[in-house]
Specification:
There is one protein chain. The chain is of the alpha/beta class. The chain has two domains: about 10-90, Arc Repressor Mutant, subunit A (Orthogonal Bundle); about 90-315, D-Maltodextrin-Binding Protein, domain 2. The protein has eleven helices and eleven strands. The chain has helices spanning about 10-20, 25-30, 35-50, 65-90, 100-110, 115-120, 170-175, 205-210, 225-235, 245-250, 280-295, and strands at about 55, 60, 95-100, 125-130, 145-150, 155-170, 190, 220, 240, 260-275, 305-310. The strands form two sheets. Strands 3, 4, 5, 6, 7, 8, 9, 10 and 11 form a nine-stranded mixed sheet that branches. Strands 1-2 form a two-stranded antiparallel sheet. Helix 11 links the parallel strand 10 and strand 11. The radius of gyration is 27 Å and the shape is elongated. It comes from Actibacterium atlanticum. Keywords: DNA-binding, Transcription, Transcription regulation. One of its GO terms (biological process) is DNA-templated transcription. Pfam families: HTH_1 (PF00126), LysR_substrate (PF03466).
Length: about 325
């Protein structure tokens, strides 16, 4: 048995057949005839000196050798494909692929994108709105905008301002609930998308910061922040809104912040890309625009009392 690797075409044929557990489906994927694919696998077996498939009447099964070989070939071709896509992206200075959460995209990014598009007509933006943690290299994504705590090891990451939350409601509801104490009787809306924060940044924490002994349990719960904000705009109730999610509705008068007490979390939105990619013109342009846009509306914090959740007592005296 030779230590030399078999031909790449033979390994590719094996990987596809092992993934599909079908010579016919693998041949279709690789755009070859089943006979040609079978020949490639046979040559791999001759090179290895043992079979990698049991050929049954209407199916195939991996042998012990095939089961040992399959994970490595799959990972190897995944890595090759990722490297090829990454190399191709280096030649593309006109397309920028960005991933961000659905709520940030809907409430903050989308309403502002015309500004970036006007300043950079040479860049075509492509968005993937998902909360799934992507692999920038494997998934062909240039930039990720993510919210949370912790570090982004091995990546270029720059954090935006700390985030705060504050009660927001329609002006009509604000007339009905004019004091923090009156909110104990208000219909409260719960944004469940930030339950992962530690310490929590939620209604019980806000009431404790306000010196009110109240642990709300009833109300409408939303898994997406933008849905909770939309419900507040519709007058359904009062939501503890995150700054970037509420800013457009507040500035345009659909929502108001009648109480000047906000609670702050150490979690941040971060601009993330592969290490070294931050110098590429299209990525640097979007980073600079992203950070500048945040600063444009920093004045919304003026006049607020902002208390970090770490400084809020566990109980109201």
């Amino acid at each position: 048995m030779s230590d030399r690797l078999p031909p790449l075409t033979a390994l590719r044929a094996f990987e596809a057949a092992a993934r599909h557990m079908s010579f016919a489906k693998a041949a279709e994927e690789l755009n070859v005839t089943p006979a040609a694919l079978s020949f490639q696998i046979k040559s791999l077996e001759e090179h290895l000196g043992q079979q990698v498939f049991h050929r049954l009447n209407r199916a195939v099964e991996l042998t012990e050798a095939g089961r040992a070989l399959a994970p490595g070939t799959r990972d190897g071709f995944d890595a090759l494909n990722a490297a090829w896509r990454a190399t191709q992206r280096l030649q593309d200075d006109t397309t920028l692929t960005i991933t961000a959460g659905p709520a940030l995209t809907a409430k903050w990014l989308a309403p502002r994108l015309y500004e970036f598009a006007r300043a950079h007509p040479e860049i075509d933006l492509r968005f993937s709105t998902t909360l799934r943690v992507v692999d920038l290299e494997r998934d062909g994504v240039d930039v990720a905008i993510r919210f949370g705590q912790g570090e982004d090891d091995g990546l270029y990451s720059i954090a935006a301002r700390k985030e705060w939350m504050i009660p927001v409601m329609t002006p009509e509801l604000a007339e009905q609930f004019p004091t923090p104490e009156s909110l104990t009787k208000a219909p409260l809306l719960f944004d469940e998308s930030i339950r992962f924060l530690d310490p929590p940044c939620d209604w019980p924490m806000w009431f404790r910061a306000a010196g009110i002994n109240f642990e709300p349990t009833r109300g409408s719960h939303f898994s997406n922040a933008d849905h909770a904000i939309d419900a507040a705009v519709a007058g359904v109730g009062v939501v503890l809104g995150r700054r970037p999610m509420i800013i457009k509705d507040v500035l345009e008068g659909r929502l108001c912040m009648p109480f000047k007490l906000a609670i702050e979390t150490d979690a941040r939105f971060r601009f993330i890309c592969l290490q070294g990619a931050e110098t590429r013109p299209k990525i640097a342009a979007f980073r600079d625009w992203f950070l500048a846009e945040i600063e444009k509306t920093a004045h919304i914090s003026d006049g607020l009392t902002i208390i970090n959740t770490k400084d809020i007592p566990a109980h109201v005296s």
